[in-house]
Amino acid sequence: MKTETTIQGLTASLSPARSSRKSIGFIPTMGNLHQGHLNLVREARKLCDVVVVSIFVNPIQFGPNEDFDNYPRTLEQDSHLLAEVGCDIVFAPSVEQMYGKHTRLTNISVSDITNDLCGLQRPGHFDGVAVVVTKLFNIVQPNFAFFGQKDYQQLAVIKQLVRDLNMPIEVIGVPIARAEDGLALSSRNGYLSEQERQTAPVIYQSLKTAEHDLLAGQVLSNVLSQIRTRLTEAGLVVDYVEARSPMLQKVDQFDQDVVLFVAAKLGKTRLIDNLQIKLPA
């Protein structure tokens, strides 16, 4: 496995694959990898001849009160994990390599679907994601790009971006990786205290209960209210509990496939999760 820290180095490493028309799979990450990330690599390995993973903590997607400076940088550990699951190239650029020394005057904004859910509490976040992913797509030029469904809104934003800008890339969403107790795997789980970690699975448990209740005929608004109540009683501070269509349009009844979204703070840690529920045939 190669590690490249410059755009020129990565381009040179990918040149043989391009000249022989091999397929390139790409997974953009911010490092501090867990099994969810590694599952993306495993999926890419199945489909692609060459697998590239970027590790870059992107400063422009962090808000002023967020944890950019404290975000874990674990490149050596990450590289070891990636080598074990068949990654071919790690791209680990510096901020200067990605953004240069000059002021960036170009922004990329995917409107409408970034206005609420996580976008409401994190203004500018998805613009930062859209910029860095566009830059990385231009640098790597992959055939396939893999994203986890835990960040469902982000996945929808990337799919919209690729569609709107006619990027020749197939974006593939990979199901959420979970711990045995159901907690969605996330780099932020490491911020949880031992007691908070024991509480955190209530998010997924609430979503599964909601799925059962919806399929049993309960009204959607009541089911969402019950999720909020259960999380609050468990000690979480709820940011939002929402139901959307798979394309993130608002829905107010269970007459189509829906995705239930939750974001809540447990102590100082913000956790997100979602569950897709299909309308019975």
Q: Could you explain how this protein is built, in words?
A:
With 281 residues, the chain is of the alpha/beta class. It is 38% helix and 19% strand. The chain is built from ten helices and nine strands. The strands form two sheets. It has a six-stranded parallel β-sheet, with helices on both faces. Helix 6 crosses helix 7. The mean pLDDT is 96.
Set out the fold topology.
Elements: E1 2-4, H1 7-19, E2 24-29, H2 35-47, E3 50-55, H3 75-84, E4 89-91, H4 95-99, H5 118-121, H6 125-140, E5 144-148, H7 152-164, E6 170-174, H8 194-199, H9 202-215, H10 220-233, E7 237-244, E8 258-266, E9 269-277
Parallel strand pairs: 1-4, 2-3, 2-5, 3-4, 5-6
Antiparallel strand pairs: 7-8, 8-9
Helix pairs in contact: 6-7, 9-10
- The Rg value, from CA coordinates, equals 19 Å
Q: Tell me the quaternary state.
A: single chain
Number of contiguous helices: 10
Query: Would you tell me the overall average pLDDT?
Result: 96
How is the main sheet built? 6 strands, parallel
Helix proportion range: 25-40%
Q: How much strand content do the residues show?
A: 15-25%
Order of helices and strands: EHEHEHEHHHEHEHHHEEE
Compute the separation of the termini in Å.
Answer: 46 Å
Summing up helix and strand content along with how strands pair, one would put the structural category as alpha/beta
Low-confidence stretches are none
The count of strands amounts to: 9
Strand order of the largest sheet: 1-4-3-2-5-6
Name the shape in a single word: globular
